[in-house]
Amino acid sequence: MPRLRLPRPPANGAREVPSVETIDSSYLETLLGYNARRAALSVIEVFLEAMAPYKLRPVDFSVLSLVAHNPGITSRQLCSALGILPPNLVGMLNALEKRELVSRLPHPRDGRAMGLHLTPGGEKLVRDAEKTASELEAGVAGRLSPAELKTLIKLLKKIYQPD
Amino acid sequence: MPRLRLPRPPANGAREVPSVETIDSSYLETLLGYNARRAALSVIEVFLEAMAPYKLRPVDFSVLSLVAHNPGITSRQLCSALGILPPNLVGMLNALEKRELVSRLPHPRDGRAMGLHLTPGGEKLVRDAEKTASELEAGVAGRLSPAELKTLIKLLKKIYQPD
DNA sequence: TATTGTTATACTCTATAACTATA
DNA sequence: TATAGTTATAGAGTATAACAATA
User: Fold this and answer.
1) Assigned domain for A120 exists
2) Number of compact structural domains in chain B
3) A106 - beta bridge partners?
4) What positions does the domain HTH marR-type occupy (chains A, B) (predicted)?
5) Which domain holds residue A117?
6) B75-109 confidence digits (pLDDT tens)
7) pLDDT in tens, A12-48
8) Which nt sits closest to B48, CA to C1'?
9) d(CA B133, CA A32)
């Protein structure tokens, strides 16, 4: 019977209320969801700091980048591409429009919709922010080799893009 | 991703306000953070459904599982292991205690702390829930081979566990 | 003086119902 | 009738400050 390595072992033979020295997370670490969430939070934390100078949250960055690469994209299309709900996009777009980064133009062939476009200032901000984001990717190479990073992204895509 | 077919754009050479047919997300898909978040959300969505019969959210599952594998663990230790803040754990523990899944016992060697333990009902629930969770892992094998899953988890750990 | 658990509270994120104008 | 954008609002998740009891 192994002796317990506690600061003050119980003096009697009664059952003892246990306490924990080192936390055992080994079971949770076998689960994909646990690891994916922890990793996502970790990466997003770094991303948040890097985007602070541009005053962009991850979702703002995603919106601006999609508008940059898809000029004329509609709110609805943005929502379905990013998994956000229409009511929650309105405020973001209002803020980005107030900062004169995006503008809402009438859609050429659908009177209900608005096409989204970057202003010149928006174009420049996105260029700079995307440059910073891509440098951040390279910086991950301190932990992961380029090959590992490529593999990781490929496997992540397999998870959320069932093809 | 819905692919809405809009009326054909006018074929003139004049300056035209563009619209978007197919959304180009290729730049965002080069970023680790974007892929990690999408994958985490996708996995957690499935996990949520699987845990619904047990009335456990992912965080409840994590808490119960850690208590199961670390009987006597304190609130503070749970918080640091799971990255949650003490004030936000209180309500969860109250709810789990009310459901008679966990009990707070006085800590054997620290009068300020409470040691957390599972009730017999909690033990059974965790056993069943962990079984379901592990079966879910195997189910991912429909998209990923066991080797790919192992690689993915290894790389995710490298991201959030800098060693 | 520092730490554990706790309360109160605020802020962000996400979700639902309903309205308007156009299709 | 259905869809795009919007408003209002509710709920969940996450954050900080401060307090009592104990170390």
Assistant:
1) yes
2) 1
3) A114
4) 25-161
5) 29-150
6) 999 999 999 999 999 999 999 999 999 999 999 99
7) 345 578 989 899 999 999 999 999 999 999 999 999 9
8) D12
9) 10
